[in-house]
Records
---
Amino acid sequence: MAVPFFLYLFVFFSIAYSNSFEKKIKENWNRLSHPQKVYQLYKLINFECLWLCNSEKTDNFYTLQEIFKEVIHHGIRPRESKSLDPELALTDELIDIAYKLYYGSADPSKLYKGWNLPKKPDQVINILASLLKEGRIRDLLIELSPKSGEYWFLVEQAKYLEGLSHFEWKPIKLKRNLKLGDRDQCLDEIRFRLFLLGDLKEYKNSDVFDQELIEAIKSFQKRHGLPETGIIDKKTIQELNISPADRLKQVLLNLEKHRWIYQPFKRVLIVNIPSFELYIMEEDRVIFYSKVIVGRDYREDFRPTPMLFSKIESITINPKWYVPTSISVKDILPKVKKDPRYLIKKGFKVFYMGEEVDPLQIDWRLYDENNFPFRLVQEAGPKNALGRIKFNFPNPFQVFLHDTPDKHLFKHTKRTFSSGCIRVEKAEYLALYLLGQGWTQERLKALIEQGQTINLKLKEAMPIYILYFTAFGRDGKLHFRE
């Protein structure tokens, strides 16, 4: 059967066009930010023209311009390509924002020491090619951005804050704490700001501190991790003086952090360090929540909880505490020097060269952080610093989740009291959830009351992310933390 002549012509011109397009890419190779990716993308779509064809702008061109505008709300600004060819320059810019949407603009492993979170597999060019072939380039933001509802909530908040950034936001000077019934000229400006920020439902011009303002102040304090007193104090005004433009920067930074995270799991446990919270997510829903205590952030005693990814593999009931040397010399040794019986009262055993020794036979005044040859081990029991339950997951920082006997510390709004590990308020309920079917509160309590140290391997390891988000959504409202 003879092949029609026009088909020969079509194949001939297609090959010629592809060759000329390849040549054009090679000519601009050194001017492109992503030359290899540009070539790879055009090859996947058979070197078809995308944006400017025969000197005419295509529908894709106008869609791309809309994408360039929209990504600004994600904290991404298109970088101008140095390519002399307008078609290739636009493709180069598209690839640049696509990778920033997918992976983030910065490399977290270069910003955070010990960063070990998994990285997404690179599917960017294949996704772009599919979108272009299917005529769906408008879906680029949905396909390449994080899929979580939290991410898209922050995008909407970024848009709103950008609108507020045009308002004048001069610092409010507070002469004294203000409470119900007080009058002050600054109260009208405070009302207006709370109205703009969504904490006050309706704005009315008034310099009187009324009940409506109390509720708005409490809402604002809750959103900023402050004690919900309803009193306008120094810390509340400090937070209220932070402009929408600065809050916008904070939201955009947190959008960037979301893009760093590869989260392919249906269920995942997340600890957010600055909000002092632990929650389990299942398909974008919170199904478990607990307050937590995290590492100290004081300048003179800095023991931060690290960001990491791992999987909780086992739970220890009635754990012993093998005290790290740093904690032994910083926290425990000064107490022992004041009270030689401190170790006995708290249930510690002392080991020297692997042998147990009597703590009362040691002159502790002779030892300091440069000379401490002992290993301290606290026996399991009600006085143990780890409480009755410990959650184990491999990590290079030797941190873990655990119970605590000091339950009163969870009453604090800011909970930075640990040496890096994470104390869980609802440790018993978390253990029951992770152990799963067949475990009841009675069964767990019976094990605890036996007093023996027991390790329980989980049937299914639980992925855990320890993260640092300072802007996040809660009950439809935007929250901020330091």
Note: The first strand starts at residue 52 and ends at 53.
---
Amino acid sequence: MVKEQIVIIFNENKKRYGYRRITKELHNNDICVNHKTVRKLMKQLGLVCQVRAKRKYSSYKGEVGEVAPNLLERHFKTNQPNRKWVTDVTEFKVNDQKLYLSPILDLFNGEVVSYNLSRHPNFKQITDMLEGAFQKLPNKVDNLILHSDQGWQYQMKSYQNLLKAKGITQSMSRKATCLDNAVAENFFGLLKTELFYLEKFDSIDQLEKAIVDYIDYYNNRRIKLKLNGLSPVQYRIQTVGAA
């Protein structure tokens, strides 16, 4: 019974869950078993969570505009949604074609608030992402920080004016200090480990659809141990309601 459920959970999540997350999912399904037993059974079953190395894309091109101070200062926790957001851009390559993902994540629960996929890392990608995020906010917000690295997009006056018009305070990592934006970096690593490196993609179109599906899975179904075994959306709804 337990072995069958472990295999089901492992396969349903496309080999993305290790023994700790599978243990939590078993508990969510009212199957009481400790993590040591799950780890032992997974070893017997030959179930291994897949991991691959990651390559980082950088949009830094020097100081091409105004650099904002690092207001976030690696304080990655908040007890309310829409108080601390982080953003970044990452690159994928399939058959000599490239795809760029630009998301915004809420540090309250790690939820992807908005994102944009583009064949080119241009400024329209950033504004489209912001437009999607702004639709989920009131006309004017207070005490919301949006943190990024020092990529050229975030130094543009047009970007900074969009944030100011919405009442959002801009924050930037220090130069060449990726740990200042660790949550965004970790999300990219997770997505590539659990999706991009696990599957073979024949085209950019195929990859784009897979990323859309993965983000829906990540937001709504992928449980997090630090969110009490809930997905980001489940945690938000349980904690503060659907708004």
Note: The chain has two domains: 2-45, 84-240.
